[in-house]
């Protein structure tokens, strides 16, 4: 398997704070890769740099044959990159189905706003609707398709967000703390869903996550950062007893 995403020497600064100081790692096609590390390690900053939401001072980000730093955030969906957010970024006042459809329109040619303004439905609209329904069905939440997102349980909203990211049929899915705030049973179910997604659709997943048991249970490759630098990387079995990792999380032994 070849590298789908390659990060080299990434440097990100916020004023006087160096959030990333030369971080490098690669994610292979079809892998589930987790970015871990203690608070302030730089995980979210790395994620936001890949999503083109922060501008690195130095380094390279390559996705397949593309140089991502030469592109805007709005271009990513068209390349096959989708992401979810730590704090759900769903539209209140829109139904679950509409929220999921937005994900596909980000990649399609027909503007969602235009379709809301009452243009006659095109073939693509019907296809998008059918695909959005299929995704809701996949996540077992088709019964709430026409409900307003507001007021639905958190676990359901997490699935809606995942369905929205997937409806664009991405090649790379970026998940920002997908297990955050979920109950124990929901975390296990999410893990099974993500592994099934990878297997069924040959998708590549990069996630930022604090839930260590979840990470170690589903990841093929784990990249640990600390203080904006690479700490250790390897498969879960290699990292489980890593003294560097234990020290970074618990502080230096006295
Ligand atoms: N917008 C910003 N302005 C200033 N400093 C920032 C900004 N965003 C992040 N930082 C700093 O950059 C460093 C890395 O933060 P980042 O949020 O990427 O870490 P993280 O590993 O995601 O942490 P957490 O697990 O707590 O979310 C921290 O020192 C943080 O305070």
UniProtKB/TrEMBL annotation:
Q: Which SUPFAM superfamilies match?
A: P-loop containing nucleoside triphosphate hydrolases
Gene3D superfamilies referenced in this protein's UniProt entry, alphabetically: P-loop containing nucleotide triphosphate hydrolases (3.40.50.300)
Its keywords, alphabetically, are: ATP-binding, Nucleotide-binding, Transport
Name the InterPro entries on file.
Answer: AAA+_ATPase (IPR003593), ABC_AA/LPS_Transport (IPR051120), ABC_transporter-like_ATP-bd (IPR003439), P-loop_NTPase (IPR027417)
Q: Which residues form the ABC transporter domain?
A: 5-252
Respond yes or no to whether keyword Nucleotide-binding is given for this record: yes
Keyword Transport part of the UniProt annotation: yes
Instruction: Provide GO CC annotations from the record.
Output: plasma membrane
Question: Mind listing the GO molecular function terms for this protein?
Answer: ATP binding; ATP hydrolysis activity
Q: Which SMART domains match?
A: AAA
Q: Name one Pfam family in it.
A: ABC_tran
What PANTHER family does UniProt report for this protein, alphabetically? ABC TRANSPORTER ATP-BINDING PROTEIN (PTHR45772:SF4), CONSERVED COMPONENT OF ABC TRANSPORTER FOR NATURAL AMINO ACIDS-RELATED (PTHR45772)
Instruction: Give the protein name, as stated in the record.
Output: High-affinity branched-chain amino acid ABC transporter ATP-binding protein LivG
List the source organism.
Actinophytocola xinjiangensis
Instruction: Specify the taxonomic lineage.
Output: Bacteria, Bacillati, Actinomycetota, Actinomycetes, Pseudonocardiales
């Amino acid at each position: 398997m070849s590298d789908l995403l390659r990060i080299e020497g990434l440097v990100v600064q916020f004023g006087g704070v160096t959030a990333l100081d030369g971080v490098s790692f690669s994610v292979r096609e079809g892998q589930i890769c987790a970015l871990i590390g203690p608070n302030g390690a730089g995980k979210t900053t790395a994620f936001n740099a890949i999503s083109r939401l922060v501008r690195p001072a130095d380094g390279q980000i390559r996705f397949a044959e593309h140089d991502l730093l030469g592109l805007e955030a709005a271009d990513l969906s068209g390349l096959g990159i989708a992401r979810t957010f730590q704090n759900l970024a769903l539209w209140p006042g829109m139904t679950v189905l509409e929220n999921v459809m937005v994900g596909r329109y980000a990649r399609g040619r027909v503007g969602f706003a235009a379709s809301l303004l009452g243009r006659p439905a095109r073939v693509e609209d019907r296809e998008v609707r059918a695909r959005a329904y299929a995704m809701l069905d996949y996540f077992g939440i088709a019964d709430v398709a026409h409900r307003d997102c507001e007021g639905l349980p958190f676990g359901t909203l997490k699935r809606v967000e995942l369905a929205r990211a997937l409806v664009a049929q991405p090649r790379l899915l970026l998940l920002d703390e997908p297990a955050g705030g979920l109950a124990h049973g929901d975390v296990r179910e999410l893990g099974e869903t993500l592994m099934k997604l990878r297997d069924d659709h040959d998708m590549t997943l990069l996630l930022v996550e604090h839930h260590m048991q979840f990470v170690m249970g589903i990841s093929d490759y784990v990249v640990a950062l600390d203080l904006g630098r690479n700490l250790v990387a390897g498969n879960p079995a290699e990292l489980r007893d890593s003294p560097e990792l234990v020290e970074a999380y618990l502080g230096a032994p006295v």
